[in-house]
DNA sequence: TAGTGGTCTAGACCACCTC
DNA sequence: AGGTGGTCTAGACCACTAC
């Protein structure tokens, strides 16, 4: 006989009921004291079970309100089209994508000079701690924190293209501005990873326990030189990345009925 | 004054010490009762703090042994080279990659006929519940569970290429076998997402709390037909995916000193 | 004010590992 | 045997939300 601990039985029973649709996304679970009666367990034991489901990302809780089944709506980002080398888009790809999806984008933006961390220095091929220009975006969709994006430029490039280090927006887009300055991005290297958020990331993206982040690092090259390194941190529950490679049939919105 | 709850103070203090290197990766934390004395908190409160760090993926615990700082070694998978259309590799790309990294790959393998789930049916463009061939791999590196890979083929293709549904390995590789049968993959569509593992996935990949999974879905096309859908589930703490797009300078191992 | 979850305690017993 | 974490309880008080 393989007896499970009681808190796990609670978690399993509730998970099954959520999967079955007994508690649809957005609905509320019974209160801790009700569950405590139902499972003949102390409140603390029930809490352990609920906690497990929170860590799985299945439910969330808020003080005074109760436990709610999480709803998952995903936003797709086409990374191979995002910055297409042959068909560059006009303006900001993020705003366009979000607006096209019928949502309202907003962002805060800042520029600063900052010493390169090991991770960034490695990719930009500059010395650890050497100066870089950081252009940082904190992005929202319908006022929900969605992602952060930090782009680092090496010092030598900022000297060649001084507007990079100026606080304002670059209206025509940085890629286009750099191209006009004779720096044309010929290719990029993408790295994708996942992990649980740091406390800082939890704060910026407003995620609780049970939601991982999706980390996307794009290193851009012009000839043999690295011209930038962009680190995007997504809420894992709200985002998905796509790549199209080779020849594909047309998929003109037929996937979104 | 912004007083934090005690269990969070415990978590923050320990996280800081881990970040500082006071407890390097692989080392053990003091026992719960020692921490209980140090922080003047009950054992349960200390446990809450430790639990938070477990959920962040920073530490892990095992009965009778204590808490250990997790070490992170990542395995990189180059998804744009993985199945290069112009320079196909010989044999199994996974085994080659792992062996090249000086590690020992192993896997279990099975083939079955199974009705298409909504997710798979959507991608294969077949009816929900219609028959598909599933070729499933459970992969290990040095006997550590690493990833699972499930490839679904539509029924019509299995009729055209009958060895797909046979239980054994396909020595020359399925891509090559299909090409010989006149089915040449011309392109693919990749989707990448992350979430916390389901209980099934936790079991197969042997991950505890605080480790998300990285989900990679590759849908392969030949002309306008979908010929397969491969769903790979990685342990998020051990894997990273890469894409090379456009022209890049040679990076012949110079990144791995 | 009543009900919800959030924090904390003190103590008990069990399961696992090392010696 | 002695130390570690894992489970569970009963009860207390606090903070937030709703009405």
From TrEMBL, chains A, B:
Pfam families: GntR, UTRA. CDD domains: WHTH_GntR. Keywords: DNA-binding, Transcription, Transcription regulation. InterPro entries: Bact_HTH_transcr_reg, Chorismate_lyase_/UTRA_dom_sf, Tscrpt_reg_HTH_GntR, UTRA, WH-like_DNA-bd_sf, WH_DNA-bd_sf. Gene3D superfamilies: Chorismate lyase-like, Winged helix-like DNA-binding domain superfamily/Winged helix DNA-binding domain. Residues 4-72 form the HTH gntR-type domain. PANTHER family: GNTR-FAMILY TRANSCRIPTIONAL REGULATOR, MANNOSYL-D-GLYCERATE TRANSPORT/METABOLISM SYSTEM REPRESSOR MNGR-RELATED. This is GntR family transcriptional regulator.
């Amino acid at each position: 006989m393989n007896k499970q601990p009681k808190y796990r039985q609670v978690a399993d029973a509730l998970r099954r009921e959520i999967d079955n649709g007994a508690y649809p996304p957005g609905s509320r679970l019974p209160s801790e004291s009700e569950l405590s009666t139902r499972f003949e367990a102390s409140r603390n034991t029930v809490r352990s079970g609920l906690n497990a489901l929170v860590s799985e990302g299945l439910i969330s809780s808020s003080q005074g309100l109760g436990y709610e089944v999480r709803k998952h709506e995903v936003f797709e980002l086409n990374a191979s089209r995002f910055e297409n080398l042959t068909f560059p888009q006009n303006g900001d790809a993020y705003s366009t994508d979000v607006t096209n999806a019928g949502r309202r984008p907003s962002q805060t933006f800042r520029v600063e000079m900052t010493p390169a961390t090991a991770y960034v220095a490695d990719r930009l091929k500059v010395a650890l701690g050497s100066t870089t220009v950081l252009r940082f975006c904190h992005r929202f969709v319908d006022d929900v924190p969605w992602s952060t994006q930090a782009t680092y430029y090496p010092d030598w490039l900022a000297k060649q293209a001084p507007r990079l280090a100026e606080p304002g927006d670059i209206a025509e887009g940085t890629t286009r501005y750099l191209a006009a300055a004779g720096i044309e991005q010929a290719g990029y290297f993408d790295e994708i990873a996942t992990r649980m958020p740091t406390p800082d990331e939890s704060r910026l993206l407003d995620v609780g326990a049970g939601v991982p982040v999706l980390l996307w690092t794009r290193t851009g090259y012009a000839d043999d030189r690295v011209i930038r390194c962009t680190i995007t941190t997504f809420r894992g529950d709200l985002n998905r990345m796509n790549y199209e490679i080779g020849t594909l049939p047309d998929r003109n919105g037929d996937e979104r009925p």
